[in-house]
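Please check this today:
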Amino acid sequence: MANQTAELDPQILSDLITLTREFRAEKSCQYLSARMIWEYYRATRTRRIAGDGEFRLNNNQLPLYSRAVMLEPDLVGVFRTRRIGIDDDTDDGISDKERAEQAEQAAWLEAWGMQEDDQ
């Protein structure tokens, strides 16, 4: 995460942290939507930053920014997150994609009353 955090724009990160704190104070709820804050920021603040229309918030960066926001002690766990990347390997060396395919195949075989050896 340290290398990825270094690539994030510090001004955007600071603004997102501020917005998250503001929304959390207003909503008084345990979890917030990172997407909601991202889109609010996009709609209200990016026009001010880039008058030339070239500034864009890359949606692929949302998971990185949301995790960076949660590095703040008072914002730990404010967003629910998923693992980044479908092909992240786990300790057993099987990727999430392979694991999902295996589960789908096992469910199909079970639905048809078969086992892997019956194929």
